[in-house]
Amino acid sequence: MTDATPPALTSLGLKATLPRLRVIEVFRQSALRHLGAEDVYRQLIQLGESVGLSTVYKVLSQFEQVGLLRRSELGQSHTVYELVDADSPRHGHLLCTASGQVTELHLPDLEQRLVELASQHGLQLRHWSLTAWGQPGDAGHCAHSGHAHPR
Ligand SMILES: [Zn+2]
């Protein structure tokens, strides 16, 4: 977890409204890096903020447009957001289909290979994304949740 201050909202062309500041705060203080809109909404309510879910969606999408948050579609309308910062290089995501837990996959070998492959096609690699899905194995649960899932 980094303490690096995100760029000032005003420098990104956004007014520092209360909902916007609170949403950033939720991401910076959350134990989980990857949050869905409803996770953010629930945490705001817990903080005593009276904010609507539609406002949360709007703020998340504005933050994505200015590059403050990265949005990842993990399939089956499972969308998560995470802060873009220097400590978080591009990574893939491993999703537990039972709990919805998201794990970051750091794949420098794969990225290097993609750079080579793109270059063989005369391209400079700009972006890649990877999502892998798994279900609980013999242990009956994924490493994070610590509790059994129905199989
Ligand atoms: Zn991620």
CATH C-level class of the largest domain is Mainly Alpha
Question: Per the principal axes of the C-alpha atoms, what is the gross shape?
Answer: flat
Specify the oligomeric state.
Answer: single chain
Biggest sheet, open or closed, and with what strands and sense?
A: 3 strands, mixed
Descriptive notes:
Helix content is about 30%, strand content about 15%. By secondary structure, the chain is an alpha+beta fold. The chain has two domains: about 1-85, Orthogonal Bundle (Arc Repressor Mutant, subunit A); about 90-145, Dna Ligase, domain 1 (2-Layer Sandwich), CATH 3.30.1490. Bound molecules: zinc ion.
Structure keywords:
151 residues, alpha+beta, Arc Repressor Mutant, subunit A, Dna Ligase, domain 1, 2 domains, three-stranded mixed beta sheet, 15% strand, flat, disordered C terminus, binds zinc ion
